[in-house]
Amino acid sequence: MKTRFEGKVALVVGGANADESRLLGFAGLSALEIARDGGIVVIADIDDEAGERSVGKMRDAGLTADYVHLNVTSESDWFAAVEMTVSKHNRLDILIMAAGIPDRGETIESTDVDAWRNVMDVTNLGMFLGTRSVVESMRASGGGSIVLISSMMARVVRDQANAYATSRAGMTHFARSAAVQYGSDNIRVNCVLPGWTLTPFTSSAFNDEWSERLAKRVPLGRVADASDIAGPILFLASDEAKYVTGSELLADGGVTGWIGPMD
Fold it and tell me: Is residue 261 part of a domain?
């Protein structure tokens, strides 16, 4: 019986935390599950130590995985990552773009221009360069799936998170634009919008007290873990979603659909 990702090659950007002996990121867990389900994974990140460690453990487990350094704001890094993937594995079917950085939680007036630009570059320039870099190889493979990791902050805002929320909203509209442009090539482009999730990215802020406070604001009653977000990512990456493109898949536990506690 054919496995879900058999014969597929995936470039997982921001997936360095795929080491199960540590706190997993949802991109890292997605990379692990693709490899376990018959796929070939190339993890790309700026955290070379974590990326090499994760890939080493995946190989020790008999999985097929490689690591490549990638700064998502660098066009030459994108070219090198895609070129390495295709030259080694002969195709590219899936791009999971999960790189991102938070802003410093300042007001619009107090936000430094360089800080704003940095958030926009990592998120929006990164998705643009990534999509542009992979489409030719995906065409050659007969199509593909691009999954952009946005945030529920694309739908709602909080005070003093202006750059982050704006950049994540930009991802969703870019996904629609790219989905229309590349539909005839059988290249699907979708977004996952995670809610509050405990990952290496958020662990410094999500102590027990803060997680309990957030959980009261979630209809499902808890903050997400990596598996709660990896599931939607893997669905959109797989052929199970072969007729899904230009979509936003919310994985927020119901936060954005609820006015919140009234007491």
Answer: no
Return the structure tokens found at 86: 């295709």
Q: By the 8 A CB rule, do 72 and 42 touch?
A: no
The verdict on pTM exceeding 0.85 is yes
Element (H, E) at 94: strand 94-97
β-pair partners for 131: none
On whether residue 152 sits in a domain, the answer given is yes
Alpha helices in 61-101, H assignment, sequence order:
75-89
Q: Rounded to 5 degrees, what are φ and ψ at 13?
A: -95, 125
DSSP 3-state assignment of 97? strand
**Number of separate domains in the chain:** 1
Exposure string of 44-79, with b = 16+ CB inside 10 Å and e = fewer, is bbbbeebbebbbebbeeeebbbbbbebbbbbeebbe
Residues classed as catalytic: 164
Write out pLDDT tens, residues 198-237.
Answer: 988 787 777 878 888 999 999 999 999 999 999 999 999 9
Question: Regarding beta strands 187-194 and 40-45, do their DSSP bridges make them parallel or antiparallel, or are they unpaired?
Answer: unpaired
Per the structure block, which two tokens stand in for 93? 């079917």
In a domain, 105, yes or no: yes
What pLDDT band is residue 255 in, cutting at 50, 70 and 90?
very high
Question: What CATH number does the domain containing 245 carry?
Answer: 3.40.50.720
Residue span of the structural domain in which 131 resides: 9-250
Residues 201, 164 contacting (CB under 8 angstroms) = no
